[in-house]
Amino acid sequence: MDHNFRFLIPCALIILSHTALAAKPLSMPDILKASSPSDWRPLDPNNTLYVELPTGRVVIEMAPAFAPLHVANIKTLTRAGYFNGLAVIREQDNYVAQWGDPDNRHPLPPGIGKVAPEFDAVIPAQMAFTALPDGDVYAPEVGFSNGLPVARSTALHKVWLAHCYGMVGVGRDLDAESGSGAEMYVVIGHAPRHLDRNVALVGRVVKGVELLSALPRGSAAMGFYTKTEKPLPIKSIRIAADMPAAERSNLEVMRTDTPRFAALIESRRNRPEDFFKVPAGKIDLCNVPIPVRERAAK
Amino acid sequence: MDHNFRFLIPCALIILSHTALAAKPLSMPDILKASSPSDWRPLDPNNTLYVELPTGRVVIEMAPAFAPLHVANIKTLTRAGYFNGLAVIREQDNYVAQWGDPDNRHPLPPGIGKVAPEFDAVIPAQMAFTALPDGDVYAPEVGFSNGLPVARSTALHKVWLAHCYGMVGVGRDLDAESGSGAEMYVVIGHAPRHLDRNVALVGRVVKGVELLSALPRGSAAMGFYTKTEKPLPIKSIRIAADMPAAERSNLEVMRTDTPRFAALIESRRNRPEDFFKVPAGKIDLCNVPIPVRERAAK
User: Fold this and answer.
1) Model ipTM?
2) Whole-prediction pTM value?
3) Coarse DSSP helix, strand, coil percentages of chain A, rounded to the nearest 5 percent
4) Which chain A residues are within 8 Å of B193, Cβ to Cβ?
């Protein structure tokens, strides 16, 4: 009896704790605390942009898997120093911040021009995809692939990046050809998902989006600044791999193909914090956070 | 024959124009241009708040139909001058701007305290409701009621306001009772729909949201400002009805229960502008604009 009892108590505790977990997921801070190094990945310095503003650095992780031509163009423009001294020329509330050449005086480097649209891509044979269970207004399926919010349609055999907050796109003119990458925009409002499949998205801001989202709104049409409004200068845009290690941001991003990330999604679907009286039990693609943190010193 | 021909041409034009309309809806500017006075409604001065900032005026249309107790509290606080001299104390990126008493030195006026939750309401027998056709991640049904984005569940017999960009809510503590209205927040990022049914929404910013969304982000937890960060003062909050006509904003809002608004929804589902190569054919509740304009002088 004594033995049985000693056996039963741990079992009961396990059952109780399992029940409690099922009823109430861990909170996001607890999930981050419980994470192990393998739940995180470093940024690839060859595909990381630093947008240096007078107010600080915006870090962008580029997505060459989705927009290889645009990313190649952006790297060429960056290495040619094209962006240095340009400015944030457009700040449209609940929409986008966009940078470019305010005076149209900077010629594009040789070999750089418009490129073929990369608005969506054929679903690759091997594709990491963490699906969300709650559906989506715009696409048959949504989820995460390599740290990026994506939408896809197996009927169309297509996958595309989704215009969530902080996503980076390439401005273009009216024609179907895409822009060169000389003008990029960052989403700073409610996800303009109607732009999906109409613009090439090239990456995501992983740090510093508030340096772009908190700028004064432009008062000309579409949020462009007027001649008398002072746009924020872009000191430079650089590729992390081109910089000395000491000057690089030392960030890592939570992987989106792990049980830990699945637990995070569940926690955000059913918020366990005491504040929430009626947890939604659902989540929209663009409300799932993709955690970023400083890497611990080795 | 001459007569027949003269009859046929207008018919052909009607058919052609109808076909063109079916294939390509009017753009939003064209819809606004074609609108008639009956497509618009004035704001009710008794339920309109002016938040006067050093940078300009934010105009809020309150929603007493959804949160009568909170709106009554806010009117009492406003008329007692409670808000005058307070400040924007919280500015959290992609989330909310919130005002309140930065030093906790302003006592609430007599009779003002926490109120019963008004997080959702029983669906009224007569309810204006313009439904959206494309579904929603969070709720069984979404649409517009009296100019406000709403969600509802006929199974639950409940309707509630949705946390779209620019919606105004009442901050509360952890308990289920709601806040007094002394601290209000405005959504300035991707719709935090997980707050739906967890907080009392009391209205919508109809003008000037950019005066709140473009403020520097607070660097303390949850976007609160630290002691060394300078919060933007609230000069005053006033009710339009309490002000001389000459000092009132003269705005009108597009009605959401008209064929004109239905046409606007259709235009935003299938964007007719040349820019769009693959119109979404869908729209998310919080991506539908609710137009606001200056009233023409009489």
Assistant:
1) 0.91
2) 0.92
3) 25, 25, 50
4) 280, 284, 287
Q: Which residues of A touch B276 (CB under 8 A)?
A: 194, 198
| Cβ-Cβ contacts under 8 Å for B190 (sequence gap 6 or more) | A164, A165, A189, A190, A191, A284, A286, A287, B94
Of A198, A210, A287, the CB nearest to B194: A287
Give yes or no for a contact between B105 and B193, defined as CB atoms under 8 angstroms apart.
Answer: no
Q: Are B44 and B62 in contact (CB under 8 A)?
A: no
CA angle B137, B140, B144 (to 5 degrees): 90
CA dihedral of A204, A208, A211, A214, whole degrees rounded to 10: 70
Q: What is the pLDDT of residues A142-177, one digit of tens each?
A: 999 999 999 999 999 999 999 999 999 999 988 877
Burial class, B196, CB count within 10 angstroms (exposed 0-12 / middle 13-18 / buried 19+):
buried
Interface A:B, Cβ pairs < 8 A: 120
* Mean pLDDT across A245-268: 97
Of B134, B176, B214, which has the smallest distance from its Cβ to A277's Cβ? Answer: B176
Q: Which of A142, A158, A286, A287 to mutate to test the interface with B (most CBs of B within 10 A)?
A: A287
